Write a sequence for this structure.
């Protein structure tokens, strides 16, 4: 094979290079039989014969997984094959941007983020119905097309009902920042692991930061398994509280407490869009009234080095401490001001409120140091009064 790169993969004629990764190269190519332009994803097979066979089988499993679904939000596979020491997959060439680039650019309004997440959830639901679990849902594996549609890519570590490639016990595959706790812990998992991962992606789209962080891999993994999540509306104050509810459920540590399906997750996201649009309109109206240049749905947020995210409130920077109560659905009413009337809550959010239930207004909770200081102050005052009387 020439140093400048191959000229052909099967019937596909290479036109140029699109990108390079750790395992292989992606090419732009032409399918002369059908007269269309495609992307050719390749992997160079190295190592022993056993290793080469394993890499090729895992690589081709991606084609098997994606090709078995046939959903408009999942990349279309045209062909697979091998040329010498290079295995390849021919797939549709996508005109768009990776979601991770859009997040870095801060160009996503909340309504766009929710729409993207809903489309991904619907595609995952189709995959799950066919026994395919993606296992690596992250911004780098989602392409947003120029017309707003999304495409899920890279089913290379997808789990099938009867996978051709068996994963060794204790071997962790995926991106830890977006992995479900059960995957990080090496416990049994199912399709709800993808629901958790999509929840992490949505949180990052809405706030610009990841819900789980760490200085190294072990700290990150500990955070995924144990850390409570700051409500997204506490990081981006323009978000409606309904998104706190949705993400609290999607990011449950215990799979049985999450959405039972990606389809259910998608439906709640669709139901929440009117509230999100209303919040964006309010932000836009305030910006126009004050002459500020804040984009609809975006708020100034930043992360305190080595600490928790914070929100700019006037001239102050208020640190947002993780609240263990966020991981309890029954206590979510304390996180934001909600309609006191249950019927109003149901009509605004589209979610079920038990009959006769009143949503509680948030109660201010005093931090322990502050409480102790107050008690100490009162005790000193009492002692001083006693001394004066004597």
């Amino acid at each position: 094979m020439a140093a400048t790169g191959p000229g052909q993969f099967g019937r596909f004629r290479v036109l140029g290079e699109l990108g390079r990764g750790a395992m292989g190269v992606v090419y732009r190519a032409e399918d002369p039989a059908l007269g269309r332009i495609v992307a050719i994803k390749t992997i160079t097979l190295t190592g022993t014969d056993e290793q080469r066979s394993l890499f090729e089988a895992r690589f081709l499993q991606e084609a098997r997984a994606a090709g078995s679904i046939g959903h408009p939000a999942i990349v279309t596979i045209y062909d697979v094959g091998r040329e010498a020491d290079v295995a390849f997959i021919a797939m549709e060439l996508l005109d768009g941007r990776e979601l991770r680039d859009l997040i870095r650019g801060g160009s996503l309004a909340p309504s766009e983020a929710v729409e993207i997440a809903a489309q991904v959830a619907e595609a995952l639901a189709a995959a799950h119905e066919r026994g395919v679990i993606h296992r690596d849902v992250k911004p780098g594996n989602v392409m947003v097309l120029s017309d707003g549609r999304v495409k899920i890519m890279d089913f290379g570590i997808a789990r099938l009902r009867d996978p051709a490639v068996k994963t060794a016990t204790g071997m962790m595959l995926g991106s830890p920042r977006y992995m479900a706790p059960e995957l990080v812990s090496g416990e049994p998992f199912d399709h709800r692991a993808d629901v958790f991962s999509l929840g992490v992606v949505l949180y990052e789209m809405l706030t610009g930061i990841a819900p789980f962080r760490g200085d190294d891999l072990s700290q990150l993994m500990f955070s995924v398994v144990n850390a409570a999540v700051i409500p997204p509306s506490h990081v981006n104050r323009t978000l409606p509280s309904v998104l706190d509810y949705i993400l609290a459920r999607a990011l449950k540590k215990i799979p049985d407490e999450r959405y039972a399906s990606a389809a259910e997750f998608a439906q709640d996201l669709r139901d929440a869009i009117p509230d999100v649009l209303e919040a964006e309109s309010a932000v836009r109206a305030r910006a126009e009234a004050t002459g500020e240049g804040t984009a609809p749905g975006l708020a100034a947020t930043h992360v305190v080095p080595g600490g928790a995210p914070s929100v700019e409130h006037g001239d102050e920077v208020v640190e947002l401490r993780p609240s263990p109560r966020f991981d309890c659905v029954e206590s979510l009413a304390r996180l934001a001001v909600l309609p006191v009337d249950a019927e109003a809550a149901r009509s605004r959010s589209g979610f079920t409120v038990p009959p006769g239930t009143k949503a509680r207004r948030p109660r201010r909770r005093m931090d322990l140091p502050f409480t102790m200081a107050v008690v100490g102050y009162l005790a000193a005052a009492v002692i001083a009064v006693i001394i004066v009387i004597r």
User: Anything to note?
Assistant: The first strand starts at residue 8 and ends at 9. The chain has two domains: 8-92, 96-349. The chain is about 40% helix and 15% strand.
